[in-house]
């Protein structure tokens, strides 16, 4: 009994290294295979929604989808087995995603599949964000993340300002334009304001009265101008984190006079001439 | 009589703390309730303009609106009562907004309500900008405001340049395209130019002659390129205010005279000449 | 005779001060009147092209336009008289603009007015760019101009790159999409590419084949991404000119040890401690 | 025989200088002629696809195209002859482009020309990118290239993030909107998401349900906001390369060991310790 448990432990260890490790050959191979299967599964979900394609290859898509579902089920079970504290994985963000994305196919055995169930499988895609934690990209993505986090406060205020402005401008446009130009209600007018402020400009709704077009022009110029605000915030933050990095690399103080700010390649203190 | 006045003063004091204070529990609760009621009132205004919704729940919306109007009337009266110099509030920006946003419902008792009266109530939303003065956000929003104020001059020149360019390009497009492509008058052509320059691009009016399309292409590239100008201005201003803040943090004060702001490599105080 | 000439000289002097001066009361008043008349004349040109308005007020517009034309004719003559070397003005950029913008009305006496002649009068608007040379705005507009001039080379290369890319992508889309989606010729496809790359997106032409939509998606992401390039160039240039200005303000070298970079308010050299 | 070979070598030398040189008069003239012929050939390809123009001038276009094809054939042969190691050119990027762009006309003798063959000739345009290596532009374009290369990693992560987000948002919109609003399949929904995220906004597909419009609004604000990310990255990189250049210019070399790059306030060489 003891022996069997130790054997199982060894097996669990092995699987753990393959599934969670990124340093061994098998670990990397597993990551690569997983990546391909995820992409394949998402492509299948997409193709199923293309009527003309689904009509021709319906059965092939279903078979492929079942193979993939079994693969993910197996992976899910192995992930749980290979951990000492499986609950940590099961109730983690990715654990829940994995479960939710795998279940729909089994449901479809019992219920007529709705389109929502089909699409839920596309959530698997979220797992691809994990790649950004891979050592190769992590330094870059951490840099990105830090700059965005640092400018979070200002960007939230900016979005808050934009939303309130959109509601006010939308209300005004509803009064000015009225239903003739497509501004049938305030929510629709707010939708139009956001479409215009962000310079997307679908053209499904557009003002037709001279006054409405004048206000619209002002909104466009405003939208065109205030894009400078988030951009400026993030730019300054990036430049700032750059500078911080440069500064952090330059401390390196002199033992004699205490002057710091020496470059890495400096051999003598630039202030007192002592060897560093 | 004296006693009654002092009692009233105490009452006024209490209300003042609740309405204007942000440090007491009741003050914060009042702010929160106010925020919710404002949002609710704006949502009601929006829903009233959605025909299908209004048809079903017209009486419920009216009742809710009356409850909210009475709440705001009470708040308005209490604000006036709680101040020693009520005129300062009544003629302040927010005082006038509060009054204008509350009156429409009372007017609707005597006159058949027009859509303008309905929408005026959405002005209450302007009060939400007050939140940006809240201590939690104020440092961020002051930073934003300063950078925008510092670049105000350049941005005004930029908008002036864009407006004149729009009129000239609009006039040229009116001659080149004519009514066939929708360019029925110069004001409409100017509207099209702004729609294009700001990269909004509704598509309700678009050039159809080869020459018109060539000019339009040039306008688009121009619009795509000159967005760099406001962005560059604001970015530089943000970076600048960042640098100023960093400088202010490099205190490094002099022990003799207390002047701070010495650079790291400084050996003598630039103010009194003592060795640092 | 001599006396008459000297009298004329004094008159010329007076007019010169009013027309070209910006420091006297009359000079400023003249500038302001001129600004208003230019704006009025441009508004009239605009309104003449609005059919519904022109039908009602045609004669009033013509009368106003003649008053303005006589005003500008007088101004043109006075400008020439008030200068010692009138040719310098007549053949200057603004001199030619003034003449071209004034002539159309006189032509319309002899020929049936065409729309081109009408619109040529809008060229008067170019004179409004002169305002940017006004002392109040000049420091800001010089700053803008310098930063744009400094980034001119890079922006030209960027536009060159964008144009060639547009032609190549346009040619590819012509082959891929064909006339069904509106891509009837390569020039039209290039027009579409520019509309898409600059994120304007009219929607008058849009791809309908899956391959075309995939390429379009790539073009959009490219256009969305490379807007960073001109913005980055101009931002860096603005930040740079900022830094230069800051540096120029800080030279101020020490007489004893030669160290520079002292702030304006520094009283002692931060390096050797001598009084500055 | 020997003499003939040496004569051929001299001829080859001469051609080589003309074709590949950029310093002699003939070399520059050749570059200019080549530039004009390439532009002319591309304009002809364009005009051939404009039905109305091609109908009128079909034979003239064909004749011009044959003249240009013979010119490019001759150029191709001379380029090969003038090199000692012709294979280096033949299998280089531009060598293959030159060949592919010249062949279609010869094919059209034997086969009925398809539109693909016509357009392949537009590939000649790629040769225009060579101009950016010209000394006059190279310093600027190298600067651009370096800043873009330095931000490559972050921009790839950004595009990766955008693509996955597009797929997820597209799937959600497919479920929410359905075929009524034009969201007929997930790939089409993804196409719509990219059109919206990049603020292009054709309007060929646009949401019609309130929920869909709400999600669309969120996507627009997201797209409007995250454009700050690539812009911020590139801006910071440009500012950084600016700073590097400024540093490189602050030579201030050491008299003893010749090391440069000392800061202005340095008193001793950081490399050999001698007083500066």
TrEMBL record, chains A, B, C, D:
Coiled-coil spans are: none
Location within or outside the cell: Membrane
Pfam family name, one: Ion_trans
Q: Signal peptide: which range, if any?
A: none
Per its record, how is this protein called by name?
Answer: Ion transporter
- Residue ranges annotated for the Ion transport domain, each copy included: 28-244
Note the superkingdom of the native organism. Bacteria
UniProt keywords, alphabetically: Ion channel, Ion transport, Membrane, Potassium, Potassium channel, Potassium transport, Transmembrane, Transmembrane helix, Transport, Voltage-gated channel
The portions of this protein that span the membrane are 32-50, 62-81, 93-120, 155-176, 182-203, 215-236
Output the PANTHER family linked to this UniProt entry.
POTASSIUM VOLTAGE-GATED CHANNEL PROTEIN SHAB, VOLTAGE-GATED POTASSIUM CHANNEL
| Membrane-topology descriptor | Multi-pass membrane protein
